[in-house]
Amino acid sequence: MWTSLRNDWLCGVLAGAALFCCTGADAATVVLGTAVDGATDAALAGAEIVLTSDAEVRARALSDENGKFQLQFDASAAAGVKSFELSASLSKYRALSRTIEIDRGRPTENRYLLRLLPEAVASCIQKTRPAVVVGYFRAAPGRPDPELSERVADALRYDLLTQIQKARFTSAAQPGIFPCRGAAPVVQEQYGGFARLLHADAFVAGYVTSPNPVKVKVQMTIADGYGALAAPLNATSNDVDLDDPQLARLDPKAHEAVLTALAIGYKLTKKPQECVDLIAAAERMLQTLPEVLRDLRKECQGALPNRGLL
Amino acid sequence: MRRALFVIAGLLLFALAPRVFGEMIVDVNQELRKLRELGEPRSPAKIAPGIDTDIDNAISGNAVKLHIPNARYRVAVFEFDDADGSGLGSAAAKLIAREVLLNSRLGSLGVLRYKGSLRPSAEHPQSYFDKVDLVVAAQDVDLAIWGSVRREAGALVIDVQAQLPDPAVQRYFRGALTLPKAMGGETLTASVWPTRVQLQRLTLPGRFASLLLEQADSIDAVRDKPDAAAPPVRRLPVDTAYSVAETRGEWTRFVINGESGWVRRAVQCRDECAPLLASADFVGALLKFGEGGPPPKVSGQLSRDTAVVARQLVLLTNLRSKTPRAAGELLAQWDDREATDFGAPYANLLALTTLTAELRAQRGRAYDEIRLDEAMVRAVATRLAEASQNDPRNRAVLENLAVLFRVLQDERRATLASGLAAALKSESPEAAQ
Fold first, then answer.
1. Predicted ipTM?
2. Using an 8 Å Cβ cutoff, are A148 and A137 in contact?
3. Count of structural domains within chain A
């Protein structure tokens, strides 16, 4: 903590000194920044940061244990605004590069934030919507189950798609359901961020715990990608046999949250017909609609062109 | 006399004609690969046998070989999704397929048993109903059955789904009413929906798993005589069509590649299979309805979808009747009366029932001169417009609304309804509704 504050202070002093001295003749230009995990915002140590200009490496550094880095180089103060490429790379992360500007020897930002995406997560970013991403499920202690997120996705696909396909959804309008075991939020607050990062309407992940040696508890958390749900929704299945395939099945509460997120997506993308049809599918699945879906149906019905027929 | 001769000749031909009952096992992914190589047909109707169509398809490479093509009715049964790899997916499909074949009491029926998963894959990203659609369109079958088997909390949960392809719906499950010329002379239509029907969600004790596997295995064992004590001499083949020659109680004689042998029916599994076979009974009754039979009865073991479909078939039968009953009279027999949660297609059939009965009540007048009371027609249109709010992409409902609003000379609403219907048609030209 103290070290970090001291580093911050030192960096600040250095940056200030650099900014001050660069107003005059040629002097060292200092670029400060932080490298973080793009999914969890955790600081990334050991990321290689390189600054280039016209394919020439001007400075190079490694991020420290707090993800902070400092690049120092000589920039011509007289040159006016000049563009540089600031790039970062780290094993198991997708390399990142962004353009920064140095104005008369001074960086235009005090500190550059470099958000590196883990390779395992970057490959899960969805290109088309609607999409549901099933993230990492931490297995019960001593019982590794690397396939669990795939099995959850399979189960969800059957439950959801068979109902949705009864309505008049074209293939393109149906939600895709994708496993992404690399997407592993650490705390509840990160779930919404994962949904947005992955361009997903809904993001599901969770863990399995063993309250006793025979039965386990499956905890699933679901967040929407629009920030419409006040907080991620939790669904718990107690007393599940670890060898029982039910481990991979979603609780009705989880279905409700996924369907709500998808309905919100259709509403926000101005597809009220799909929204109404999806909620009809939800009604078939859940038997009774929760208030949030009943309200959404009213809103979507209000936007239907069919309204003019009444 | 001449006419009588023709009738006798016809009866003779019917009696002598081979009664086709066949069963065949086909690899679903092989079929899809075939589709992919040959190109997906644009319209299911194009698959119907016809010399011009066949020549066109042969030139364009679109032809898919029809399995058991000479059967009047053809049903495809797909291996059930088996998430737990228990082997029960194949067993459930086999038991249902055989029961449909032997118990539907149709004159001519071919059952195609497809094997392979309906889950989306890299090669075939379509899934479940959408994947089945592709195959049934190419094979021009009248009905498809598929489902899933999975274990949940120590129990077996079996989902059985049926799918009615659009051409079959148009052939067997559609009603129409042409209005009198004084009301514009346009035609209103209504079809049964859902066409993707959950027949059953059955929960069986987990211990039934091994029994179901045994039963499914035993119905492929061929014996030289109809006697359980006789040793099995072979098994029914997986890639050849075989036909039913005769049935004696629980035993059926199949002809396989010119040789015959006896196979015991699944009726031997009573407690374990009986609930599952309710799906087969419903499917048999659906097919029989296409042949002019009564609407199917819905047992307590079947799902809500079957009740929705059966109710619509009662309305459809009434529409086709020479003496149709009024909607109110029909509704009085059901506790839930208008059952607004049965969806827009049900409301659509009720609308046609109401109008048909009202027109019938005017008999004695020249049909084309009848003009029904405007308030009554408006009430029908309003109920249909309300139903459209919960099922906004139902094309048949929108097309009927356009007709009814034209009758009422409500141009604004008529234009809106026909515009919405046209947009849906351009989005999905094959879908009937």
1. 0.78
2. yes
3. 2
